[in-house]
Write a structure and sequence with these properties.
Layout (H helix, E strand, L loop, with lengths): L25 H17 L3 E3 L9 E6 L2 E11 L5 E8 L2 E11 L1 E7 L5 E7 L1 H13 L10 H13 L24
Antiparallel strand pairs: 1-2, 2-3, 3-6, 4-5, 6-7
Length: 183
């Protein structure tokens, strides 16, 4: 099993934009496997490489019985329709806040082997794809909230058992290179 520790809110890697994947090699396939197994073990709908401390543009997803991953995603939106509903994050455990997202998304990217991939999502899949792509840009769902909702979410975070405001962010060692595989 290759379940890895998930970086929590406050870890600087979560606020750092990830680099594009350039090497589609066995290290990338290992990262995709680690993302998938860690996500499934944690019961999440998605997990991005920065959440494992890896600064690469790749994430895994498991929504509506569709399990997969995408490397170097680029998003487009076929319309302006929005959805508003509860959103959470494995890096911010126990905090769920209604968050506005686009209802439909198209993600262009690649598989772990470098083959072109197009992922079309609606509803929960669209929410997941947008959320995980935000992670690749150093953006958290908290950043998408209106002021009052963000204040409420921060109150929940400060009250959470896992949060320690007096301690610097815990940075865990990843078995993968932090800003690229094999570097």
């Amino acid at each position: 099993m290759t379940v890895q520790p998930i970086r929590l809110f406050g870890d600087p890697v979560l606020r750092t934009p990830a680099d594009a994947v350039v090497d589609f090699d066995k290290e990338l396939r290992r990262l995709v496997r680690d993302l998938t197994e860690t996500m499934q073990d944690s019961g999440g709908a998605g997990l991005a490489a920065p959440q494992l401390g890896v600064g690469l543009r790749v994430f895994a997803f498991h929504v509506d019985e569709v399990l997969g991953h995408i490397v170097n995603p680029v998003l487009s939106f076929p319309d302006d329709e929005e959805q508003d509903g509860p959103e959470g994050c494995l890096s911010i455990p126990g905090v769920y806040v209604d968050t506005k997202r686009r209802q439909h998304v198209v993600a262009q990217g690649f598989t772990e082997n470098g083959d072109p991939l197009q992922l079309v999502g609606t509803g929960l899949m669209a929410r997941c794809v947008q959320h995980e792509t935000d992670h690749l840009d150093g953006v958290l769902f908290l950043d998408r909230l209106e002021t009052a909702a963000r204040k409420d979410a921060m109150k929940q975070i400060r009250a959470a058992e896992w949060y320690d405001a007096g301690a610097p962010p815990t940075v865990k060692t990843s078995p993968h290179g932090i800003f690229g595989l094999g570097r």
